Amino acid sequence: MTDRATLLLAALMTEAVIGYPAWLFAAAGHPVSWTGALIARLESDWNIGSGTRRRAMGIAVVGVIIAASGGVGWAVMAALDDGWAVMVFVLIVTTGLAQRSLHDHVAAVARPLAARNLSAARVAVSEIVGRDTQALDESSVSVAAIESLAESFCDGVVAPAFWFLIAGLPGMLICKAVNTADSMIGHRDARHRDFGWAAARTDDLMMLIPARLSGLMIAAAGRGGLPMMWRDARKHASPNGGWPEAAMSSALGRRLGGPVSYESEPSDRAWLGDGPAPDAADLVRALSIYHRACLLLWVIVGVIAWPR
C-alpha cells in the first residue's frame, strides 16, 4: 500500500473538506462513539469493589480497548491492501481526524459571540467543554473555546496523525480509543480515581510528544511566543494540555486559564500567559492561528512523504 505519510496527507486534506457527514453520524454513529459505548458498558460492569480491584479492572479496560481498536486497524489494513481500496482506506483514516469538526464547533461559538448573543454562545461552548457555562461572560466563553481549540488540536489532529505515522491505522485507532477513555473515566473524582488511573496515565504517555509538537506548531503559526510557552506550559494541571494552550495564549497575547467550576465545584487553575483576557475578536484570531497550524501540519507530512 502507499506509504503512510502520503496516505495521511490525503486523509488530512479530505477530512478538512468533507469532515464526518452529519447524516452518517445520525445513521451509524462514529468510531469514537462506538468506543465510548464499549467503555461505558465496561465501566458500568467493572467499576465496583475495593480501590485495588477498581484499579486492576481499569487497567483491564485499557487493555481491552487497545486490543479491540488495534485489532480493527490491522483487519482493515489487511482487507484494504492495494488498488482501488486505497481511496476507501483514506476515507477510513479521516474518521480519526477532527480538523473540520473542531473548526465547526469553535466557529459555532464565535458566531453568536461576535453578534453579542451571549446565551447562544454559552450553549455552543457547553458542547465542547466540561466546565459550567451558564454564567460565563464574553471573556470566559472566549477563554473556554480558545482552550478547547488549542488542546483539541493536539488530541484530535496532531496526536492521531503522529500515531498514524508511527504505527499506521492501528496506532491511530489506539490513540483515539485511549483518549476517549481518558475523557470518560480519567477523572479524579471518587468514582473514577482508581478505575480511571490507567486510562489517564496511558493517555498522558501517548500525548507526550504530540502535545509538544502541537505547541510548537501553534507558536509557529502565531509567529512567536516560544519563551512564554516554555515558561507557562508546566503550570497546567495536565502534563500535556499546557503546551498547546500556553502556545495559543502566547500567540494571541492574551491570558488563558484561571478559576472555573465543574458541576458547581470550583477549580482554581493557574493562569497561562500575560496580557488582558480574550474577547470575541480574539476567538476569531485563534481560529486563524489554528488554520495555519493545520496547514503547517500538512506541509510537515508532505515533506516526510516527498522522498517516497
Explained architecture:
With about 300 residues, the chain is mainly alpha-helical. Helices cover about 70% and strands about 5% of the residues. The chain contains twelve helices and four strands. The protein has helices at about 5-20, 20-30, 30-45, 50-80, 85-95, 100-115, 120-125, 140-185, 195-220, 225-230, 240-250, 280-305, and strands spanning about 255, 260, 265, 270. A two-stranded antiparallel sheet has the order 1-4. Strand 2 and strand 3 form a beta hairpin. Helix 3 runs antiparallel to helix 4 (about 50-80), helix 6 runs antiparallel to helix 7 and helix 9 crosses helix 12 (about 280-305). The longest helix is centred in the middle third of the chain and has 48 residues, at about 140-185. It is globular and about 55 Å long. The model has no long low-confidence stretch (mean pLDDT about 95).
How is this fold's topology laid out?
Layout: H1 4-18, H2 22-28, H3 31-46, H4 51-79, H5 85-94, H6 99-114, H7 118-126, H8 138-185, H9 197-221, H10 226-232, H11 242-252, E1 256-257, E2 260-262, E3 265-267, E4 271-272, H12 280-305
Antiparallel strand pairs: 1-4, 2-3
Helix pairs in contact: 1-5, 1-12, 3-4, 3-8, 4-8, 4-9, 6-7, 6-8, 6-12, 7-8, 8-9, 8-11, 8-12, 9-11, 9-12, 10-11
